[in-house]
Amino acid sequence: MDTELIGFLSQLVTGIATLLVALVLVFQLKNQSRQLKIQHQDSDNRMSMDILSIFEKTFIPHNYTDEFVDIMYRAHNEGISGLSDKELWAFRQWSIVANRRLVAEWRLGRFENRQQAQKQYFRTQYSYFFAYKANLDEYLTRIRPRIIGSQQLADSQGILAITDELYEEITGQQVNNCEKKL
Distance from first CA to last CA of the chain, Å, rounded? Predict the structure, then answer.
């Protein structure tokens, strides 16, 4: 055989082998991408169920003592003025946990790829949160600064805009400009 022919055949075989390896890699990447989508869907489903469980534990009265249900009822209807110092402390602990759940969901990217759904979800969740007059009473002085402080963990500007807007709609009071720049 001629040397040139052998060189040509070896280059052809090498080229075909390289092409086959590239095709196998593309196939593996597609499979891996599909598996990651499935895992993402599973983790989103698991997160949804965990959040639902936490939501139920936080907001359903039968999870609490009668005394705490009474505190929650007065916090809901009368605000902080209807609570003693001890009751206000108990309500604040509940409020911190409820707000922390929402900030954590935001930080974890709940509905991150669907902005309209994300905004609607968090508006709905904070509507439940602000149904308690005591949370509205303490939004500017206690709750809002906590949301701003969470910016160190994640971009909470979006959640802050949602809560400010909702607060203004419910109370009719504006969050003044210097507070908005916090």
Answer: 82
